[in-house]
Specification:
This protein is of the alpha/beta class. 36% of the residues lie in helices and 27% in strands. The chain has one domain (2-240): TIM Barrel, CATH 3.20.20. An eight-stranded parallel beta barrel has the order 1-4-5-6-7-9-10-11, surrounded by six helices.
Length: 241
């Protein structure tokens, strides 16, 4: 499934380069109009990140995100600053299909495991945004990618074994917003090592060739962001290829 992405800062669509808030591109389009365009081009689901929430540890654009979901008709998965169960319940009650948990899935896995039991695993996506060390080992970062992680991706995924987790979103931060191709080998390794997990890929898509390479893996979803805003391809192109 092709999942177009909207990243929000102060209610506007933006994209970051390798997760750097100081290397940000703003797009002069209303996010509701963007979502409606994605729907018209064949998208069924959309990924929305509250970057203000991710950076400051407190979701701040929930009302807008719920409005986007309502007016676009798309199934929306959203994250950024999710810190307690009441936030998750409010989003789900407000029409959001799935809630994406990032930093806390790394820093407080016990809490996220509790949420998985309380909410239903299908409604929570664990997002692990990784930097590769000098040996190519992926380490998830936290707090809007501002803080480096101390445990590897493999240690964290092992820790979630038996928790009920069924969907993970993996982003290679070094490729995000670069348009230079996705880390296909990383996603393939995750799928091979954890065959029961639904894997959503994110980061690096810059062309139809990149989409085809990811589709060959048959992942649960392929998130595309900057390439859509820079007119490298359309949602319709990605769905059809």
């Amino acid at each position: 499934m092709i999942i177009p992405a909207i990243d929000l800062i102060n209610g506007r669509c933006v994209r970051l380069y390798k997760g750097d808030f100081n290397q940000r591109t703003d797009y002069d389009e209303d996010p509701i109009d963007v979502a409606k365009r994605f729907a018209a081009e064949g998208a069924e689901r959309m990924h929305i990140v509250d970057l203000d929430g991710a950076k400051h540890g407190k979701s701040s654009q929930s009302d807008l995100i719920m409005k986007i979901a309502s007016e676009s008709g798309l199934k929306v998965q959203t994250g950024g600053g999710i810190r307690d169960l009441s936030q998750i319940q409010r989003l789900l009650d407000g029409g959001i299909d799935r809630v994406v948990v990032g930093s806390l899935s790394v820093t407080n896995p016990q809490m996220v495991k509790f949420w998985l039991n309380e909410v239903t695993p299908s409604k929570i996506v664990v997002a692990l945004d990784v930097n590769l060390d000098e040996n190519g080992v992926p380490f998830p970062a936290t707090r809007g990618w501002l803080e480096a992680g101390k445990r590897s991706l493999w240690e964290i995924l092992d820790d979630y074994s038996g928790s009920g987790l069924n969907t993970v979103l993996i982003t290679d931060i070094g490729r995000d917003g670069v348009l230079g191709g996705s880390n296909v080998e990383l996603y393939k390794e995750v799928q091979s090592s954890y065959p029961t997990l639904n894997v959503i890929t994110s980061g690096g898509v810059g062309s139809i060739k990149d989409v085809k390479a990811l589709k060959a893996l048959k992942p649960h979803g392929i998130i595309i962001g900057k390439a859509l805003y820079e007119n490298k391809l359309t949602v319709a192109d990605a769905v059809a290829c």
